[in-house]
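Lay summary

Proteins are chains of building blocks that fold into shapes. Our project writes down both the chain and a compact code for its shape. Here are two examples, one after the other.
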Amino acid sequence: MTSQVIITLEDFEKRYDNLRKQYPKIKKCTVAGCKNPRDITKLLGWSSSCAYHRLLFDFWGMETLSTEKMLRYVKHQKGRRRAFSNWMRKTGKEECDRIVLEMAQEPINWEC
């Protein structure tokens, strides 16, 4: 029987600290106002956002980009960013945290 590790927001901070130590010149997340370092994974390489916003964007994409209204944003990065930012503001920090923590429980590689 394997025990499941529960990922917390503090684990994200540890990951960011490890990334800053391993890559001293790492760029910051491109989400406005976020000062966390960009995320990196072995398979996907460098992201344009931090681990928190990467998971949140994945959720948002699954939930909203499937509708016809949102398909136009797929073609334009500026439109996607604006729609994502608007969705984050409407959703609120508490709910965004809940979504990210729920998604973080899925098995992924948390090592840098």
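And here is the second example, written the same way.
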Amino acid sequence: MLKLEVTRDGHRHTVSFSTEAQALAYVGPRRSTYYFDLLSDIPKDWHRISDMLYPKCHHQMDASMCMDPYGPHHFGTAEWERQQYGDW
């Protein structure tokens, strides 16, 4: 079972799912306009919902924090940052 707190425009509610298919059907169309917070652990065999809620970059780390989406470094090196942003 998976339990999520769902937030949009300051309104919050709690939803529970007994199957991964239910969770995917609910979260999929809402993932770009709603915020989801876990209220329980994601069951270990529910890989697709885990990937949907927490996508990974090609470095196999949190995609939202990837600074170098095409290169070899997840956080970027000092040289890479200078190339991207110039000298500080």
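What can we say about the second shape? The mean pLDDT is 88.
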